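Session log. Operator J.P. requested a structure for one protein chain; no other inputs attached. Running the standard single-chain path with token output.
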Amino acid sequence: MSRLIAFNKPYGVLSQFTDAGGRATLADYIGLPGVYPAGRLDRDSEGLLLLTDDGALKSRLSEPAQQTEKVYLVQVEGIPDVAALQRLTRNVELRDGPARATIVELLAKKPGWLWRRTPAVRQRKSIPTSWLMLTITEGRNRQVRRMTAAIGCPALRLVRIAIGQYKLGDLQPGESRDLSAQLSPD
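Structure written below.
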């Protein structure tokens, strides 16, 4: 039977098992041999990372052609107006081509369940921040960060909360959960 592990990747952890530079990696948290990340999260991003030993499942979850939805909470600098939010869903021109979110929502405030980040996000007294919930189906390198920067609202914090049907739920940073029982036998 295939293995599927949900992991809440903390800020500052690499989405790989080794690092010649001695930085924190998945090996510091995941002791299960033979599983590999289905996709990546940048070192400065947090949240749901799925690990599996099933190559076909890994491809279904992470290959852009599969159009798997990925949902993010994004704290941005500034407060995007309606036109900027619409731009995110219509097309934002990036160096590697146009990108768009399938859903964008400006949240009234930071979700109450979201943990504090260590180190804390920098605050500027003269520049407000806001929170977005953003869904994409691609997942190019730093795509969400590049998209919010392109509308003039750079991302300060990025937390992935869902990949397809799999949700972060109540996992705290550094915690994992075995989801293997949720996989249907092939």
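Operator note: The chain has three helices and eleven strands.
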